[in-house]
Amino acid sequence: TMPGTKVDLTAAKQNVWLVKVPNYLSLQWQKAAGAGEVGKVRFAKKGNQGMAEVSFTLNKEQAMTEGLDNQPFSVPRQHTFSMQPMGGQTLAVFTQSSSDEIAFLGKVVQRAECKPKFFEDYLRLKKLQAKKSSKVNRLSLQIEDPITSYKPTASHSYHREGKKKKKEEGHRRREDKQLVLNKLFAAFEKHQHYNIKRPGGIDQNSPLSHKLYLKKILREIGMYNARGPHKHTWELKPEFSYYGKEKKND
């Protein structure tokens, strides 16, 4: 809460239980909001020193829900409480009204989990939920006036733009090859060996940074050193190794 927020502590000494319930049970309670009683909790003492067995029975009227094809279906009504340890925790329950008023409802003295007593009833519910989720709801509507705002076309604008872009990229690669060669020869004039994977390699100065495209051009003019002192580097082929010197002499 924010500093200065007032909290109603009228029920501060009240003890409450924190019970985890199945989703279907929570939905049935929400549907029955304001309808009064939704079920009964029963405590059956187990011996003189044993802990009481707690069960919950959902009212028959509140258990009915919609099945397949608008047929009524009953969710599990009989439930048992599985007691859970507090684990040394201190828990409390608060509520907040529509006017942002906060009230303390009580201290949690017992935790429990509400489970359906008969597994067969729960299994029937899960089968129904699976069938409802897999059922396709199709709706057919009769159109009186034909739709004229849409006309079928064999080629949409985004298709044409995509093809145009691919075509332009193809031309750009063919046009840039000579530019890449010029930059490669200029780079090999400075250094005899290059590793294109290292930062600052020849691919950084290439107009196309795609390594597969760069390697394709390198194979035409260069050799790859797979072993030796210059392992993993490229150098010019013998027929190109004096390219820079010949160019300067000319």
From TrEMBL:
SUPFAM superfamilies xrefs: Rap30/74 interaction domains, Winged helix' DNA-binding domain
Descriptive protein name: General transcription factor IIF subunit 2
Keyword Ion transport set for record: no
Compartments it resides in: Nucleus
Function summary: TFIIF is a general transcription initiation factor that binds to RNA polymerase II and helps to recruit it to the initiation complex in collaboration with TFIIB.
Gene Ontology biological process terms, A to Z: transcription elongation by RNA polymerase II; transcription initiation at RNA polymerase II promoter
GO CC annotation terms, alphabetical: transcription factor TFIIF complex
Keyword rRNA processing part of the UniProt annotation: no
MF (Gene Ontology): DNA binding
Residue span of region Disordered: 150-175
Bilayer-crossing regions: none
TFIIF beta subunit N-terminal domain mapped to chain residues: 13-174
InterPro entries membership: TFIIF_beta (IPR003196), TFIIF_beta_N (IPR040504), TFIIF_interaction (IPR011039), WH-like_DNA-bd_sf (IPR036388), WH_DNA-bd_sf (IPR036390)
Family listed: Belongs to the TFIIF beta subunit family.
Keywords: DNA-binding, Nucleus, Transcription, Transcription regulation
